[in-house]
Design a protein that fits this description.
The complex is a heterodimer of chains A (122) and B (375). Chain A has 122 residues and is of the alpha+beta class. Chain A contains four helices and nine strands. In chain A, the strands form two sheets. Chain A has a six-stranded antiparallel sheet with strand order 1-2-3-9-8-5. In chain A, 42% of the residues are buried. Chain B has 375 residues and is an alpha+beta fold. In chain B, 22% of the residues lie in helices and 33% in strands. Chain B is built from nine helices and 19 strands. Classes of the chains: A alpha+beta (122), B alpha+beta (375). The A-B interface holds A 31-32, 34-35, 37, 53, 55-60, 79, 82 and B 34-35, 39-41, 44, 232, 235-236, 301-303, 305, 325-326, 328, 333, 355.
């Protein structure tokens, strides 16, 4: 199940583990990504709290955790190849995997159709 | 820089930018292209390798007009620390408009037009131009006046192929060297241009009538060597060039000496003074300023942005980053900032504090990328 936030993160949930990244729209707005600061494995993430920082040529932007959980893996490939975020934002350019907290509420996240409709309003 | 309720102005090329797919952002009261669809990295690299075309019509163009060169030059010398009187015809210089305490009100280019005795052309920053004009006009002698050119646009064509592009359109510029100015005709369009810019590359800033600017812009873009470049790449190019952005690297709290701009104050002016802030500037030239702008090459890949603290290796905060980002030609993060004079020698190891983490940085001589000027 892949869901989206209004801050342009995506979260692909598989059981109690979820992969998080930024959307194609978000990378287009940011422009060329030159650095991604990822959290350490084991870090507790709070929904809406800072999970990572993505740096484009222009500026630094925060990436927020879509749900509560704990980081179980960070995408090490982004250290040497931050441009993957531009090339494959919703595939190889993922940011982190997190173990979801029990009973997380996904009701205010959007599905793909709702997110696409949201982007059209921007 | 611009309050949300400030009316947003446009340059005569606004529709051209939108037509090219530019992302338009408010900057200094104008809606300006920050990037075109290829993006900042590609635009930056294109300018270093070929020729990049910039719309910088938001900048202020004006002239001081007096009865003869000496009179106009002396009027300008009362406001800036550069030598104007001995400037040759057809030559341009960089300087700063100074406050009485030696702080920088704006930085600017001034040029002595060939064959127009008593006229000195000025180019000032968009965000400062209204205040600059008021400041200048209030301080001119009776026989010198300020004329503001609202009817002229400004293009910059920057990069190693800029000269060949203009020559191929009939503009005779190959005889000009860095900081020369001349009136030439490019494909039938009369322009005033200077061989200068804000990228560290060879190139030209081209002043052209608003009525002609779209035609000239389109003509230049028809050349395959030319691509449009937005403000995003303009910023990364000038940062690699070690060039100051007013309001960030220099402002009313910094003197030209602190800003590492003492090269722009010629010997006679240092000795004679006669400009605002001379007491401070003479003292800083004699004793050295308390702090000075330096280049910082950052280890790793993480950029440090404006405002990041600069610390010694033992953790003492000694200054702040005033411009910082990723240098596409350097292929790594670079910054400029102020440090105490004792820590300003190239090779000095420091840390930049970004979100609580210390990034190793080394003081390096500016520019980060060797200038391609045609001297």
């Amino acid at each position: 199940m892949k869901l989206y936030t209004k801050d342009h993160e995506w979260i692909a949930i598989d059981g109690d583990v979820a992969t998080v990244g930024i959307t194609t729209y978000a990378q287009g707005q940011l422009g060329d990504v030159v650095f991604v600061e990822l959290p350490d494995v084991g870090k507790a993430l709070t929904k809406g709290g800072e999970a990572a920082v993505v740096e484009s040529v222009k500026a630094a932007s925060e990436v927020y955790a879509p749900l509560d959980g704990t980081v179980v893996e960070a995408n090490d490939k982004l250290a040497d190849d931050p441009g993957l975020v531009n090339l494959e934002p919703e595939a190889g350019g993922w940011f982190l995997k997190m173990k979801l907290a029990e009973g997380v509420d996904t009701s205010d996240l959007m599905d793909e159709a709702a997110y696409e409709a949201f982007v059209q309003t921007l | 820089m611009t309050a949300a309720d400030t009316p947003v102005l446009e340059t005569p090329l606004a529709a051209s930018h939108v037509g090219l797919g530019a992302r338009m952002v408010p900057f200094a009261g104008y809606l300006m292209p920050v990037q075109y669809p290829t993006g900042i990295l590609a635009e930056h690299q294109w300018t270093r390798a070929h020729a990049g075309l910039f719309d910088v019509s938001h900048m202020g163009q004006a002239a001081l007009i007096g009865p003869d060169h000496a009179t106009t030059a002396k009027a300008l010398e009362a406001l800036i620390p550069a030598a104007v009187v001995e400037l040759g015809e057809g030559r341009q210089r960089y300087s700063q408009l100074l406050a009485d305490d030696g702080g920088i009100l704006d930085d600017l280019m001034f040029a002595r037009e060939a064959g127009a005795d008593g006229r000195i052309l000025l180019v000032v920053n968009a965000a400062c131009k209204t205040a600059d004009y008021a400041h200048i006009a209030a301080r001119l002698p009776e026989d010198v006046r300020l004329e503001i050119f609202e009817d002229r646009s400004l293009l910059a064509l920057q990069g190693p192929e800029a000269e060949a592009v203009i020559e191929s359109l009939g503009g005779e510029v190959s005889g000009l060297r860095f900081m020369d100015v001349a009136s030439v005709v490019i494909a039938g369009v009369p322009v005033h241009l200077s061989r200068s810019g804000y990228t560290g590359e060879d190139g030209f800033e081209i002043s052209v009538a608003n009525d002609d600017v779209t035609r000239l812009w389109d003509l230049l873009l028809e050349d395959a060597r030319v691509k449009p470049i937005g403000l995003g790449a303009r910023d990364s190019l000038r940062l690699e060039g070690g060039l100051c952005l007013y309001g960030h690297d220099i402002d009313t709290t910094t003197s030209p000496i602190e800003g590492a701009l003492s090269w722009s104050i010629q010997k006679r002016r240092r000795k004679e003074g006669g400009f605002p802030g001379w007491a401070r500037i003479a003292r800083e030239l004699e004793e050295g300023p308390a702090r000075i702008r330096v280049g910082l090459l950052i280890g790793g890949r993480q950029p440090a942005r404006e405002g990041a603290e600069i610390a010694t290796k033992d953790g003492t905060i000694v200054g702040r980053v005033t411009s910082g980002g990723y240098g596409p030609t350097v292929e790594g993060p670079i910054a400029m900032g102020y440090v105490p004079l004792t820590l300003s020698m190239p090779g000095t190891d420091l840390d930049l504090i970004v979100r609580g983490r210390a990034l190793p940085a080394r003081v390096v001589a500016l520019p980060f990328v060797p200038a391609g000027f045609r001297r």
